[in-house]
Amino acid sequence: MKIEEAAQQLEALGNPTRLEVYRTLVRAGGVGLPVGRLQERLGIAASTLSHHLHRLIATGLMTQERQGTTLICRAHYPAMDSLISFLTEECCIESACTREEGKAA
């Protein structure tokens, strides 16, 4: 992962509402959630939710799929895994930390 991509994803998740949206989708699993149900769970206006969803899609952190008249939102787990790996892959690379210290970091 390039540092620019990681920065964009972290910036997107730096907004409390987007982070809440994303965590809700992660908890929903691979099945995802319809936009309407996501809106009900979070209690935010449709236009506000739409804005945040577009930002998460643009950074690759989530996907949407149309099923009939319903839009299903899903966390994009490969992107999440890539971002987490980017943050941890060089843990303790410049020091002689133990395996347990690396896990804690």
Q: What can you tell me about this protein's structure?
A:
InterPro entries: ArsR-like_HTH, HTH_ArsR_DNA-bd_dom, Metal_resp_trans_reg, WH-like_DNA-bd_sf, WH_DNA-bd_sf. Residues 1-95 form the HTH arsR-type domain. Keywords: DNA-binding, Transcription, Transcription regulation. This is Transcriptional regulator. One of its GO terms (molecular function) is DNA binding. With 105 residues, the chain is of the alpha+beta class. The chain has a single domain (3-104), classed as Arc Repressor Mutant, subunit A (Orthogonal Bundle). 60% of the residues lie in helices and 13% in strands. The protein has six helices and three strands. The chain has helices at residues 3-13, 16-28, 35-42, 46-58, 77-88, 99-104, and strands spanning 33-34, 62-67, 70-75. A three-stranded antiparallel β-sheet has the order 1-3-2. Strand 2 and strand 3 form a beta hairpin. Helix 2 crosses helix 4 (46-58). The radius of gyration is 16 Å and the shape is elongated.
Shape: elongated
Specify the structural class: alpha+beta
Poorly predicted regions: none
Tally of contiguous helical segments: 6
Oligomer: single chain
Distance between the termini: 20 Å
Radius of gyration: 16 Å
Report the CATH superfamily: Winged helix-like DNA-binding domain superfamily/Winged helix DNA-binding domain
Under the CATH scheme, which class?
Mainly Alpha
Please describe the biggest sheet, giving its number of strands, its sense, and whether it closes into a barrel. Answer: 3 strands, antiparallel
Strand content: 5-15%
Could you tell me the CATH topology label: Arc Repressor Mutant, subunit A
Question: What is the H/E string?
Answer: HHEHHEEHH
Helix % is 55-70%
Number of strands: 3
Widest sheet: strand ordering: 1-3-2
CATH architecture: Orthogonal Bundle
Q: Roughly what is the average pLDDT, rounded to an integer?
A: 91
